[in-house]
UniProtKB/TrEMBL annotation:
It comes from Trachydium simplicifolium. F-type ATPases have 2 components, F(1) - the catalytic core - and F(0) - the membrane proton channel. F(1) has five subunits: alpha(3), beta(3), gamma(1), delta(1), epsilon(1). F(0) has four main subunits: a(1), b(1), b'(1) and c(10-14). The alpha and beta chains form an alternating ring which encloses part of the gamma chain. F(1) is attached to F(0) by a central stalk formed by the gamma and epsilon chains, while a peripheral stalk is formed by the delta, b and b' chains. GO terms for cellular component: chloroplast thylakoid membrane; proton-transporting ATP synthase complex. The chain crosses the membrane at residues 26-49. Belongs to the ATPase B chain family. One of its GO terms (molecular function) is proton-transporting ATP synthase activity, rotational mechanism. Pfam families: ATP-synt_B. It is a single-pass membrane protein. In plastids the F-type ATPase is also known as CF(1)CF(0). InterPro entries: ATP_synth_b/b'su_bac/chlpt (IPR002146). It is found in: Membrane; Plastid, Chloroplast thylakoid membrane. This is ATP synthase subunit b, chloroplastic.
Amino acid sequence: MKNVTDSFVSLGHWPSAGSFGFNTDILATNLINLSVVLGVLVFFVKGVLSDLLDNRKQRILNTIRNSEELRGGAVEQLEKARTRLRKVEMEADQFRVNGYSEIEREKLNFINSISKTLKQLENYKNETIHFEQQRAINQVRQRVFQQALQGALGTLSSCLNNELHLRTIRANIGMLGAITD
C-alpha cells in the first residue's frame, strides 16, 4: 500500500499533476489518445467489422461460385459450338466436293452435248451437200438429154420426110412420157 500512496505522492511532485491544464507535449498526448481511441474502436467495432467482412467474404465466395458455374456453362457451350463448327465444316467440305463433282459432271455433259450437236450438224451438212450434188447431177442429165433429143430431132427432121418425122416424134414422146412417169 505504501507503494500505491507513494506513487500518488510522487504524482504530486509533477508540476502539472496537481493542477488541471494543457499538456503541451504533442507526441505524448497524441499517442495516448490514439491508443485509447483505437482500443475503444477495436472493442466496439470489432464485431461490426467482423460481420461486414464476413458478409463481404460470403458475397465474394458466391460471386466466385457463380463465376465458376457460368464458366462451366460457357465451356460447355463452347464445346457444343466447336462440335457444331466441325460438323458444319465437314458438311461444307462435302458440299464443296459435291459441288466440284457436279460442276465437272455438268461440264462433261455440256461437252458431250456440244459434240453430239456438232456431229449432227456435220451430218446435216454432208446430207445437204449430197442432196445438192444429186440435184445438180439430175439437172445436168436432164439438159444433156434435152440437148441430145433436140439434136436427134434436128437430124431426123433434116433426114426424114414428114410422115417418118411424125412417127419418130410420137415414139419419142411416148418414151419421154414413160421416163417421166
